Amino acid sequence: MNLNQLYYFRTLAEYQHYTKAAAHLYISQPSLSNAMKSLEKELGCVLFKKTGRNVQLTEYGRMFYNTTCSTLNILDEGKRELQQKIKSDAGIINVACIPTSIGTRLPKLIKNFQSQNSRSPYFILHDEFSVPILEGLDNGQYDVGICSRAVTYTDLSFIPLFSEPIVAIVPPDHPLANEKHIDPNQLRPYDLVTYDPKAPIGQSVRHALNAKCPNLTFAESFDSEIPIAGQVVENKTVGVVANTMLLDAFNLKRIPLDVPADTRTVCIAYNHTRQLSPVLQQFIDYIKGTKEITVEN
What we know:
It comes from Lactiplantibacillus garii. The chain is α/β, with parallel strands linked by helices. The protein has 10 helices and 12 strands.
């Protein structure tokens, strides 16, 4: 029995289909089938039974699945902790950042930190949206994130950095284009385009709008400002987004929206349940003490 067999077994149990499981594992279906036959022979029992084109765990398979998942989870956690220790000893900090800040605020932040510390770490930057950042912080893939806050991630700590104004975006010839300021009630006649409700910013925007004007119509949702702005341009509709540089490429009117100023707050996030290296703790402490970047924009 080897680790590959255990990973293969867990994946097949979850997909319940040889072809799909093999595709997920990037191996051939015969290789997966042979690995499972070998595992069943070693264990002396049948782990799967056929149900049409799918497979299901037998009673023995269910017993072995629980043990396999526990074992692999422990191994995966040990691997993550070891990798974190190696990175820590090497002075490496993995920073994941939302697209609107990775080329602007983040380089300035790192440069200022490095100028004040003679033994600065090596930073590896990752361009991601908030949800993958939060997941990466939670599982140890990233050391620090610049992203939205999500209360469901209880193992993460968040330090507010800055806020971005929420605006309505419309084509220049739209009926709302000449407005200087928009109350959410003015949006009721329109089908709105905004962020994915699964994303923290999508949840914040919807909550802020519903607090002022319940039951607005959200026609479409996307991950970032670019597809939202594209839909607004093509369909002559109304978008609700954070006012970021990603809108600069579009011929749109940006109109301030009457919602709380902290609706879109970007934070520095880190996992407080994991042991922080001295250099990572130093970087986090520097951020906490930096007044320059906590000013709202």
